[in-house]
Amino acid sequence: MKKIAVAVLTFLVTSVALAQSNDLANYFKVTENGTQKIPWYTYNKGALSVDARYNFDWPNTTSIFLGRNVTQGQTTLTYELGGIVGGGHGGISPELLTYTEHGKVSIFSLYQVAFSVKNDPYFVFHYGDLLYSLSPRVKAGLDEQIYYERGMAGPDIDVGPVVKVTIKPAYVKAWWSVNPTGRLQKTFFAVGTNF
Question: Of residues 158 and 58, which shows the higher confidence score?
Fold first, then answer.
């Protein structure tokens, strides 16, 4: 089932993605328990937003989101609704993504709530990315994420420095997180392309 879901997701998203401007990336979450690969594909054309990812929302799940982009000035809001399937999980999830640029500063945020249609606990998630452009190819800043799942004693919080290097159309990104809640330390790497 997992291989079929990944194959269908890759075919559908790549077909759409190759048609217009998009972002294809592989994220790697590294912890003392091992490395988790998170492929992520986004497509944005005008008002249409398509967002697909694997292994992000719950372990071994495929998620596909459809939404609408609303841009005013240098700020874009994206409203999405998606489905999460696979790995014994299933759910629906609304998301709000925001992106803005002001001079050398860019800010991205993702707000998500996932509701299970099975017996999984719901979760609330926020990710923020604040970058300052040091040069046309190098950005540095601060990333954070907050994750809370029903039944947890408290939220899981990660915060730390991030560096992104772009050599168009490719980029690499590294984020070293510190977890003030004392939970698992994580390091994130991404390799992607915008086209």
Answer: 158
Our count of domains for the chain comes to: 1
Look at residues 132, 80, 79 and name the one whose alpha carbon lies nearest to residue 107: 132
pTM, to two decimals: 0.85
Q: How far apart are CA 184 and CA 177, in angstroms?
A: 10
CATH number for the domain spanning 71: value is 2.40.160.40
C-alpha to C-alpha distance for 182 and 168, rounded to whole angstroms: 38
What residue numbers bound the domain in which 147 lies? 2-194
DSSP 122-173: PEEEEEEEEEEESSSSEEEEEEEEEEEETT-SS-EEEEEEEEEEEETTEEEE
162 neighbors 177 (Cβ within 8 angstroms): no
